[in-house]
From TrEMBL:
One of its GO terms (biological process) is ATP synthesis coupled electron transport. The chain crosses the membrane at residues 20-43, 64-85. The gene is cox2. The lineage of its organism: Eukaryota, Metazoa, Ecdysozoa, Arthropoda, Hexapoda. GO terms for molecular function: copper ion binding; cytochrome-c oxidase activity; oxidoreductase activity. This is Cytochrome c oxidase subunit 2.
Amino acid sequence: MTTWLNMSLQDGASPIMEQLIFFHDHVLMIMLMITTTVSYMMITLIRNKQTSRFMLEGQMIETTWTIAPAIILVFIAMPSLRLLYLMDEVHNPSLTLKAVGHQWYWSYEYSDFTKLEFDSYMIPQEEQQESTFRLLDTDNRIVLPMNSPIRMIVTAADVLHSWTIPSLGVKTDATPGRLNQTSFSISRPGILYGQCSEICGANHSFMPITIESVPAKYFINWVSKMSE
Ligand SMILES: [Cu+2]
């Protein structure tokens, strides 16, 4: 989760998010390169007093500064498309979780099991404990097995919502009447936080998402306890 003074992205908890962070840093390096070059050119242009009555065009430099940005764009577009298609693909999931957005809470259905569904409300401030995070913790956490490919089905019951976990690199719109699909695999155990990311009404800020990532055997224990 994000803590104070964390200006960058959260640590990746899935292989896709790690790749997204690499891509983000890669684009930032290119931007740094361009900003440095352009500022250097602008400053030298302002600071010197050279004038020339005869220099009207420079074919060579003009060709160069037209083609160079196109080549730079290819270096951004290629890894970007690679990631886009990696995220689009659903790789033989071992579990499906359906999230339904409501005003203003999430409800979840584990459709691989019978009668395993629950609502997930934010813990109100009056019921805070030492171990809970304000505006982020829920009364019922989603429990998921780590290191397993998981398919998310996201929809809404009333208005638009958006199911988001920044450390997994997942953000999927929840639209009434539609089933949106995404997938991820969590690479470590822990608690992952997210919030609704579509302005959905008065309590939009108060419908967080909490995932408890656990080893598979603990997940099976949890499932058998929940479906008793
Ligand atoms: Cu919402």
